[in-house]
Write a structure and sequence with these properties.
The protein has one domain (2-253): P-loop containing nucleotide triphosphate hydrolases (Rossmann fold). 37% of the residues lie in helices and 15% in strands. It contains 11 helices and 8 strands. Strand 7 (175-183), helix 8 and strand 8 form a beta-alpha-beta unit. The longest helix is centred in the middle third of the chain and has 19 residues, at 152-170.
Length: 290
């Protein structure tokens, strides 16, 4: 299972929208996708029309150690959701008295790593939070979501430095990629900014940029991915293109999460390393607890 965290140091950049719709696009392309809502505000949970504070959530997994399978719910667009709740904020306080608290999520996700091809982690806006540290520790790829607006270039540079420091401090290995969102091609400023972002970050930036779209806001209001609301929309095509790029990523720094514990096995028992870009594994069915 490849784990991708969607991060930024501020809100309002389209991070949750990207997490929901990228996940749905991956499902459309035949991947099994888990979306983990790591934000106490539970925007991804609400954005998929799921009730907050009903049943088990990611807080029960991180704080009480329940199995992630006991908290999974089916969501629109073929996604499987590990929902959030307001109680997740208490994990920050409890982590101060817990050793290796940044590895709790990674250890929990190992249990379901064989059930999914991708896990998308929607992180809170605080880059220095324990929740974001958990996401980075579990990730093979981290997507820095950058709004195509004023000061975006400077903000992206500062954020990349910050996440690099976090990764070095906790020994996490993940590839950093940049995704541009809320792009309005009608304005000269937005076009020039996009050129500047590509010039500054080169191969780290996705070719796909997510354009501003009324359809994305309407989909969020209906609690569904845009592919469910309007499959012909340009927003849907943007996320289909992004999903294609994500699937083609060749892992450099990170590894697939399901390989993480192979070092405990003798060499003859270790699973072969997957070849990036090679043929996908046969799909397996997942039974979701109701």
């Amino acid at each position: 299972m490849r784990v991708l965290s969607l991060v930024n140091q501020k809100g309002g950049c389209g991070k949750t929208t990207a997490a929901i719709n990228l996940g749905a696009a991956l499902v459309d392309q035949g991947e099994r996708c888990l979306l983990v809502d790591l934000d106490p505000q539970a925007h991804a949970t609400l954005g998929l029309g799921c009730e907050v504070d009903r049943g088990c959530s990611i807080n029960d997994v991180l704080v009480d150690g329940i199995s992630p399978r006991g908290a999974l719910v089916e969501a629109p667009g073929g996604l499987v959701l590990l929902p959030s709740s307001a109680e997740l904020a208490e994990f920050e306080d409890l982590s101060e008295h817990r050793l290796h608290s940044e590895h709790v999520l990674r250890d929990a996700l190992v249990e379901v790593a064989g059930d999914f091809d991708y896990a998308l982690l929607d992180c809170p806006a605080r880059a220095d939070s324990v929740l974001t540290a958990n996401a980075l520790a579990a990730s093979s790829v981290s997507l820095l979501v950058v709004e195509a607006g004023a000061f975006a270039l400077q903000g992206a540079v500062r954020a990349l430095r910050l996440f690099d420091r976090i990764g070095e401090r906790q020994g996490s290995r993940f590839d950093l990629r940049i995704l541009g969102t809320m792009f309005d091609r009608r304005t000269r400023f937005a076009r020039e900014l996009l050129v500047a972002l590509h010039a500054r970050f080169a191969d780290s930036m996705f070719d796909t940029v997510i354009r501003s779209s009324v359809r994305l806001r309407e989909a969020a209001a209906h609690g569904v991915p845009v592919s469910v609301l309007d499959r012909r929309s340009r927003a849907c095509s943007d996320f289909q293109a992004l999903a294609g790029e994500v699937r083609s990523i060749r892992l450099v720094a990170g590894r697939e999460l399901e390989r993480e514990r192979d070092f405990d096995l003798p060499p003859a028992a270790r699973r072969p390393t997957a070849v990036p870009g090679g043929p996908p594994e046969p799909s397996r069915s997942l039974e979701i607890p109701r």
